[in-house]
Design goal:
CATH class: Alpha Beta
Number of strands: 12
Number of domains: 1
CATH superfamily: Ribokinase
Shape: globular
Largest sheet: 8 strands, mixed
CATH architecture: 3-Layer(aba) Sandwich
Order of helices and strands: EEEHEEEEHEEHEEEHH
Number of helices: 5
CATH topology: UDP-N-acetylmuramoyl-L-alanine:D-glutamate ligase
Structural class: alpha/beta
Length: 242
């Protein structure tokens, strides 16, 4: 199974520490860091999840290092602040032939667009034009005519509200602990799962969705599998792979 992932990547860093008092100068907690972890996030996290499931993955992503730093109270697991560094990246350069992308070699393409500047809507339309396999889109952009030819579009509830004027039966709408919706049908998840952290869960969902779809070509079975994958990673601290 060969899958191409295209999109913006970052470094996800988690700084854990103790909070034992409130700052005397302002009503904010005093955070004392004790340890930290980091891993590749966004599009790179999608790729890592696919690899952990057994797929062979190529990735086209930004060279600039975007860093998301989350400060976590070690005792409660509660995030108290997120700091984003270098939040923009240069636009990808795509030639008019698309020959350098070797699209015919892939079983599926995932466009993981975090809207950091790497992909413009024109770029995504070019990828759709040259593709010879199913394309899945996970985008933070407002949806429009530029993505109508994409096979499946994964968005969350907040993103759906921003794109409420976009009508399509291709939408797979994730709804957190309620599961997800596709063509008006709900696909629930186990509500007994203890959620530790939701960071990266959407990446895991889309990775599981595409992996299963390549195997069975059944989108409903793929959604059920993706729900199970996302339900596992939200029980772990930090951004993890399935």
């Amino acid at each position: 199974m060969d899958i191409l992932v295209i999109g913006d990547s970052c470094v996800d860093k988690f700084v854990y520490g103790d909070i034992e008092r409130i700052c005397p100068e302002a009503p904010v907690p005093v955070f004392r860091p004790t340890h930290s972890t980091q891993n590749q996030g966004m599009a790179s996290n999608v790729a890592k999840n696919l690899e952990s499931l057994g797929a062979t993955v190529d990735i086209v992503t930004n060279k600039e290092e975007i860093v998301k730093i989350r400060y976590i109270d070690d005792k409660s697991g509660q995030m108290v602040m997120r700091l984003d560094e270098n939040d923009d990246c240069e636009r990808i350069v795509i030639d008019d032939t698309g020959s350098h992308l070797y699209f015919t070699e892939y079983d599926a393409i995932i466009i993981s667009d975090y809207n950091k500047g790497f992909l413009h809507t024109d770029d995504i339309e070019k990828y759709v034009k040259f593709a010879k396999c199913p394309i899945f889109l996970d985008s933070k952009k407002i949806l429009g005519s530029w993505c109508r030819d994409i096979d499946y579009i994964k968005i969350n509830e907040t993103e759906r509200k921003l794109s409420e004027n976009f009508k399509s039966e291709k939408l797979i709408i994730t709804k957190g602990g309620k599961g997800c919706e596709y063509k008006g049908k709900m696909y629930p998840v186990d509500n007994k799962v203890k959620i530790s952290n939701v960071s990266g869960a959407g990446d895991t969902f889309v990775a599981g969705l595409v992996y299963k779809f390549v195997l069975c070509k059944d989108i409903e079975k793929s959604i059920i599998f993706a729900n199970k994958c996302a339900s596992k990673v939200v029980q772990e601290r930090g951004v993890t792979t399935i």
